[in-house]
């Protein structure tokens, strides 16, 4: 008899027990004697019965499916910024180790997120949520286990994973100052309040202040955190008089910048030193290899899965905010001034 035709009723009939008894044996519940368990197991083997995991999940109202949501970055962002791919890959690997499956959603700000309920998702991981937005409010109304990455949300009850962006911004700038640079431009994404790029910008200013270097607003260039954004910013940075170094708040923008500078005959690091932030795999193979503030992207993804799973299984996790450390990775895109 093929397992497509075998049902729990067949197993119960073969073993001479009730359907409820077979269910208790399959799920390890109820009081069932050792002899009865043996009878049921022999019937299962004889009939080559495979209980449906999907049916079990439905009964338990568990899908073993989670979503990774990037709802606030606009169309195509996953294609433009390799950072998201590395982070999503890390989340998927962590989820797989717990037998969870991942649904990747590049949602727009007007997204209703109705798919979370429709697909019976067990939880969501949200990248880059913005404080006070309707999209954030709709996510919170879903009332499912949720972890926010790189979001800087003020509600202490929310589960969040961040890296020490301010410290990293400070260290990246200090590295350039230590190489003798005093006129350092900042290439940053949008400086919206309580955002990743703002935190790195604050670190940049802190390093300047500690070194006694006056802050010059005209040295702060905002551009999309993408290779195209960095490349386009090269023209503006090339016009900055006296600038000898650039700290970029993302590797992808730094790599685009180096390409744009090269097109204008400006060599890195001979003419302009560049430091990035993230430590993308791509940066190690840039020309020259990119000096950067390294965050553990894989660790961030795994930590998000850990916090989500704790909520799914226990209703809560031991901590609500995890702030991961960063470190300098010195390569060849920045040089000491003569």
From TrEMBL:
Molecular-function GO term, any one: transcription cis-regulatory region binding
Domain HTH lacI-type: residue ranges: 6-60
Keyword Transcription assigned: yes
CDD domains: HTH_LacI (cd01392), PBP1_LacI_sugar_binding-like (cd06267)
UniProt keyword Transmembrane, yes or no: no
InterPro entries with a match to the protein in the record: HTH_LacI, LacI/GalR-like_sensor, Lambda_DNA-bd_dom_sf, Peripla_BP_I
Alphabetical keyword list: DNA-binding, Transcription, Transcription regulation
Name listed for the protein in its UniProt record: LacI family transcriptional regulator
Organism of this sequence: Cohnella fermenti
Lineage: Bacteria, Bacillati, Bacillota, Bacilli, Bacillales
